[in-house]
Amino acid sequence: MVRASGAKGTCVKGSFTPSAEAAGLSKAPHLARTVPVTARFSMGGSNPTISDKTKAVTRGFSMRLEDTEGDLVFVFISAPVFGAKSPEQLLNGIQLRLPGPDGKADTDKIKAFAEANPETTRQSAWLNARPVPASFAGVDYWGVHAYTLTNAAGEVRVAKLKFIAAAGQLGLTEEELKSKETSFYADELMGRLAKAPASFDLVAILGEPGDPVNDVTAMWPEESRKQVKLGTLAIVSMAPDATCDANTFDPVVNLPDGITGPANDPMFEIRSPAYAISLSRRAN
Ligand code: HEM
């Protein structure tokens, strides 16, 4: 069995080095000194042979910032929003797309669902408005949920987290896309890392009163929000699949002191059991 989502991916290694400002926002030990990182880039969805050229699918970036007191797990995607704000909406959207007795999904029902639930279309609209990324290291990734950061003085800020690619947004033109193989990301990354690390800046986008904190389909106006650099992630080498496959990247459990997930986001808590079930099925 493969992962229920992010089924196709590439495991990598690197390190995270916090910025001088990070401690001002969070007392997490992972934001206080350089820590080793095991990470995995992936294609969204449960298809392990999905083409890397697929546009309307998020690229995923999951990672474990390793510390003797426990790992900090982040699971990010290449869009600022998720495609459903509640478990019911997610399930309804998935079930609608299942093929009927004629082997096809009911397109009228899919259209009606999108009209009745417009927030579920924001993620695909975001992806369709942008080119297919030329590299896993050439696109930004968002943590999507609103996290609460607490520093050593007990000061609290709500923030969304984002990894900004040092390489910039590397998109493929339609012409370039045609000449690409179905699977080109792993080789591209290997070639890139042979020359230099692939870096990302982790920034905290600070929320202001009224910014939604429990709806992963709602976008914050991040250009007008204060952004604080928390550190730099440097991906330095490829790693065997087994290094990433032995465990799951569960972003809910074991968050360190200094970082908590959203209290009332119905999509946050359900992730933990879903990731555990997927891990148990693919381990058997
Ligand atoms: C809300 C924002 C979400 C984001 C950003 C997200 C992102 C991701 C990513 C990037 C992966 C690949 C992990 C890897 O490389 O190993 C993944 C895996 C997975 N996701 Fe999500 N996801 C979200 C919500 C959910 C929800 C609501 C569910 C189900 C209720 C879910 C179920 C899963 C499962 C079952 C896996 C496979 C885990 C494994 O086998 O290790 N995700 N997700």
Can you describe this structure in just a few lines?
The chain has helices spanning 22-25, 87-96, 107-116, 122-128, 174-178, 185-195, 241-245, 266-269, 271-283; strands at residues 8-18, 35-43, 59-65, 72-77, 132-133, 141-142, 147-150, 156-165, 171-172, 198-206, 227-238, 259-260. It is an alpha+beta fold. It has one domain (8-283): Catalase HpII,  Chain A, domain 1 (Beta Barrel).
Explain the layout of strands and helices.
Elements: E1 8-18, H1 22-25, E2 35-43, E3 59-65, E4 72-77, H2 87-96, H3 107-116, H4 122-128, E5 132-133, E6 141-142, E7 147-150, E8 156-165, E9 171-172, H5 174-178, H6 185-195, E10 198-206, E11 227-238, H7 241-245, E12 259-260, H8 266-269, H9 271-283
Antiparallel strand pairs: 1-2, 1-11, 2-3, 3-4, 5-9, 6-8, 7-8, 7-12, 8-10, 10-11
The protein binds protoporphyrin IX containing FE.
Protein name: catalase
Binding site for heme: 275
Organism: Skermanella aerolata
Molecular structure report:
This protein is α+β, with helices and mostly antiparallel strands and about 280 residues long. It has one domain: Catalase core domain (Catalase HpII,  Chain A, domain 1, Beta Barrel). It has nine helices and twelve strands. Strands 1, 2, 3, 4, 6, 7, 8, 10, 11 and 12 form a ten-stranded antiparallel beta sheet that branches. Strands 5-9 form a two-stranded antiparallel sheet. The longest helix is centred in the C-terminal third of the chain and has 13 residues. The N and C termini lie close together (about 10 Å). The model has no long low-confidence stretch (mean pLDDT about 95). The site of protoporphyrin IX containing FE has 25 residues, from strand 2, strand 3, strand 4 and helix 9.
